[in-house]
Specification:
single chain, mainly alpha, 4 helices, elongated
Amino acid sequence: MIKFIGISICVLFCSLMLKETNRQIALILSILGSAVLFLTAAGELSKIVNSVLSFSEVSSSVLNYSKLMLKILGITLITQIVCDICRDNGENALASMTGLVAKILIISLILPLFETVIKIVGGLVK
């Protein structure tokens, strides 16, 4: 955790110093800092993925739902990073549109799950 905080604080201070003189370099530094943090945390993320996939070895349908959950988690994490970078650089409209597109992608991914739930509930009601 200290490594993540150290990287964040270093990137923050450098970005704040550069923002006054050169906004483009500050933006690039912010994006690179975010990428470094994400890649540093990727090891922990792989542990989560492996755990979820090991839980889902029970059946193929559970594995499919686990993969769906991991895809949605990935979309959510990446979208949050991109939206934060956009907002930090004054691009609120772009951040909002990125969030909206991610929500549409997530909804399109979970439509088959909704269909399955509706079929199950429909079978119970009859």
